[in-house]
Amino acid sequence: MIVNPQVPLHRLILSLSEALDFVHPNVADHQQRVAYIATNLARRLGFRGQDLLDVFHAAALHDIGVIGAENRIKLVHLGDLEKMHWHAEAGFNLLKTNPLFARPAEIIRYHHAVWANGTRAKGTGQDVPLACHIIALADAVERWIERDKPVLRQAKPLVEKAVALSGEQFHPECVAAFRQVAGTEAFWLDATSPRIYSVLLGQVDWPVLTIDEVTLNPIAEVFARIVDAASPWTAVHSAGVAATAVALATRLNFSPRELHLMRAAGYLHDLGKLTVPTRILDKPDRLTEDEFVPIRAHTYYTFRILDTIGGMPQISEWAAFHHERLDGKGYPFHHTADDLTLGSRIMAVADVFTALTEDRPYRAAMSSQGSLDVLRSLAEKGGVDAEVVRTLANDHDGIDTARRGAQATYAEGQHQLGRLMGRPTAQCAVA
Ligand SMILES: [Fe+2]
Ligand SMILES: [Fe+2]
Ligand SMILES: [Fe+2]
Q1: What's the CA gap between 81 and 406, in Å, rounded?
Q2: Nearest ligand to the C-alpha of residue 21?
Q3: Which of 205, 241, 227 is nearest to 271 (CA)?
């Protein structure tokens, strides 16, 4: 039975924030820790209701424009912010058209605002909102914390450091608020807690704003773009999987609501790839057994991230079981035919069909006919669902056209994102 998804927005944002910071232990939880510090500062400065929520959402996603572990580590540890300014603009661009994120997007755009005695407080001719200065300070404080030393030994010098930069780098009102909130041990222990997700959930009485499957789709698409941008080889992959899965599900009589869920699941199916280092995704050769380890884990993370959000069980399953096989030889759960619903079987076929028609560093793209032949033989061996493969074969041209069309439209946004991020987009071409 399909349950209408009731996704708590703050949990969705926290889980996506956590997923982005999975990339390396050195930057783990950076955005959530900044969200904790920023929300405390904002409350102290009188932010309430939607204004407070905007700061929370912006802080939790403030580095959304940074892709890949290497870039995140540079950003957090080298503090080379001038060179990394593009990431704030990329984050703004990713979120600005989504009605739920339009206000946080504006805050993210200037989250490295420098106060400079008020003289450089302007972005595009207007005053940079106070919320940006709050996140700028929270971000700096989080990056100053040395993770291998007891935080309570660092509290006093960190406050002194912020005070010394008040008026110059940081907005004086934010520094004054920081002096007040940083006065307790609990503040520092919370900010660096390994259970930061739960700390944030309990920090404020977040309004239970739930979103439905229609609202969810543009958010899922944003995350698809981030996952896909991690490697030029997969620049339009998730859009192709989503379009193929929806085309198959339409022909298998899924309801309009189920089709929305299927599209979101397609966009989110490789979310766990955020945990895979880009050097592995980009390797121009077959992977070694060791390098394949994080690849085999990626759908586990897709499942855990989506399942933790709650409220959308179909999407979690359909998205995360795309490397499972009916004969139990897939990964990582080794589900068998009994466990795999039609939605999961559709996603598995959509993923193989799309992946084989794309170039990879170690092989050229196959024709869509060749891809269909591979799927037929996989179905004969009991790996994927024969009925779903027949559905694909029955309208191969129609489904392939839908896939190509969706990928071509999506590619425009990916090229723009690639330009902002300084990532190559040569392989953005649609197969
Ligand atoms: Fe940043
Ligand atoms: Fe940051
Ligand atoms: Fe995958």
Answers
A1: 35
A2: 2
A3: 227
Are 306 and 268 spatial neighbours (Cβ–Cβ below 8 Å)?
yes
Q: How far apart are CA 113 and CA 134, in angstroms?
A: 9
Q: Looking at the CA of 297, which ligand is closest?
A: 3
H helical segments located in 234-367 = 237-251, 256-268, 278-281, 289-309, 313-320, 342-356
Predicted local distance difference test score (pLDDT) of residue 120: 59
In the reported structure, the alpha carbon of residue 131 is separated from the centroid of ligand 2 by a whole-number distance in angstroms of 14
325 C-alpha vs ligand 3 centroid, how far in Å? 13
Distance separating alpha carbons of residues 400 and 244, to the nearest angstrom = 7
Nearest ligand (C-alpha, residue 237) = 3
Give every residue of the chain whose pLDDT is below 50, as ranges: 1-2, 425-431
Centre of ligand 2 to C-alpha 345, Å, is: 39
The pLDDT, as a whole number, for residue 431 is 32
**What is the reported pTM?**
0.89
Residue 77: per-residue pLDDT: 67
How many CB atoms are located within 10 Å of the residue 305 CB? 24
Q: Which ligand is nearest to the CA of 321?
A: 3
| Distance in Å, CA 364 to ligand 1 centroid | 37
Q: In degrees, to the nearest 5, what angle opens at C-alpha 20 toward C-alphas 110 and 318?
A: 130
Q: What is the CA radius of gyration of the chain?
A: 22
Ligand 2 mean position, distance from CA 422 (Å): 18
First and final C-alpha spacing in the chain: 36
**What is the CA(80)–ligand 2 centre distance, in A?**
11
Cα 322 to middle of ligand 3, angstroms? 7
Q: How many CB atoms are located within 10 Å of the residue 160 CB? A: 11
Q: Which domains does the chain have, with CATH numbers?
A: 7-203 (1.10.3210.10), 212-428 (1.10.3210.10)
Residues near 9 by beta carbon (within 8 Å), at least 6 away in sequence? 100, 209, 210, 211
Distances 14 to 56, 208, 344, 359 between C-alpha atoms, Å? 10, 14, 26, 33
